Amino acid sequence: MSKSPYVIGITGTIGSGKSAVGHVLERMGIPVIDSDAVVHELFEDSVDLRSAIRNRFGDSVIVSHNGKEKVDRAALGQIVFKDTDARKALEAIVHPATIAECRRQIAKASERSDVVAVLVPLLFEANLEEQYDEIWAIYADAETLKKRIQQRDQLSMQDVDRRIAAQLPQEEKVSRADYSVDNSGTVEETAKQVEELISQLRVRISSQT
User: Fold this and answer.
1) pLDDT single digits (tens) 44-88
2) Contact residues for 91 (Cβ-Cβ < 8 A; gap 6+)
3) 147-163 tens-digit pLDDT
4) Cβ 31 vs Cβ 117: under 8 Å
5) Do 175 and 131 contact (CB within 8 A), yes or no?
6) Do the beta carbons of residue 10 and residue 18 sit within 8 Å?
7) Which of 25, 87, 116, 165 is the most exposed place for a label (fewest CB within 10 A)?
8) pTM
9) Separation CA 166–CA 148 (nearest Å)
10) DSSP state for residue 17 in the 8-state scheme
């Protein structure tokens, strides 16, 4: 198997349904790396990252669980989604470590697949376009988007609006992506779009070999 797989970067505003698209791809046998999951693991396991976050944001964002320290994501979120400078400071700490770990996981996944997908919420915000062979933007209508976030994260509508405002507008992500998936409808409707995109991708890869 090639050590340089074709890498799809999948992005979209919070609540757009990147994970749903990831599940479809996994059912199709395509490895999916979730950068959010990577961040969660780093928050729990990386001493260096935890130390850098403590130095910047203080002890209030660090909690102890079963004798082990980890980053309190909820407390940190309350800070960074209300303060642009704080959010940028956090991203400067977290992004390099996340990128390095995603690259490691892509290399490992390439041993079993010639196509790998990476879910990256802040792909455009972090200027990561060059990391991927093609980019998909997942989107949903505004009302559906807000309901999903509110129900999933148990947030007030004010907090929902803050989190959406902290990212690029959906329309911009769609316009900058190579392809887009409308995740406003049913699971089946979304899956059909994903399957068609992968079918087209397979044709392009075949024509290049």
Assistant:
1) 889 999 999 999 999 999 998 888 888 998 899 889 988 889 999
2) 122, 125, 126
3) 888 777 778 888 888 88
4) yes
5) no
6) yes
7) 165
8) 0.85
9) 17
10) -
Structure tokens at 158: 């004010």
Q: E strands of 66-177, at which residues?
A: 68-71, 115-119, 134-139
Closest CA to 138 of 180, 198, 172, 194: 180
What is the C-alpha separation between 150 and 145, in angstroms, rounded? 9
3-class DSSP state for residue 109?
A: helix
Which one, of 42, 56, 43, 44, lies nearest residue 92 by Cα? 56
Q: What is the CA radius of gyration of the chain?
A: 18
Q: Is the pLDDT of residue 1 over 70?
A: no
Domains along the chain with CATH numbers:
6-208 (3.40.50.300)
What are the tokens at 32?
Answer: 């999916």
Residue 3 has pLDDT above 70, yes or no: no
